[in-house]
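Entry 14. Structure prediction run on the chain below.
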Amino acid sequence: MFDVGAPEMVALVILAIVIFGPEKLPKMIGDVARTIRKFREFSSGARADLKKELGPEFQDMHLEDLNPKTFVRKNLMGDGDDLGIKELRDSLGKDFEDIKGLASGSPYDPEVPDGSYSPPSLRKNTTAPRVEPGERPPYDADAT
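Output returned:
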């Protein structure tokens, strides 16, 4: 959890002795340990209450499984493939290869010469007929 090495630990102990003094340090350590113990009891109680309230169908669920990274690692990349995701991924991979083969000659294919494709212009078309003053613009039912 914390990446604290031996030199950092020694520095923290010396700092604690300087700040709290040798007579108050044991009491402070006891208070910190008691607080950590109460926090762990509270979190385990909350976890037990959550499992009890969710019912028997969620008894085998672990709270770590709710983390998205754990879910993806377990269900999409792991061997426990209850949903058939592995077969779906394999079939999509084959379909992707088929589509890639059909799309040969696309502008994004590195084998296509540079001059054979030009991107569409994003500039405003100035050659289009303009509406004269007093004239009604064309009505576009799809645009309204």
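The chain is about 50% helix and 0% strand.
Filed with the rest of this week's runs.
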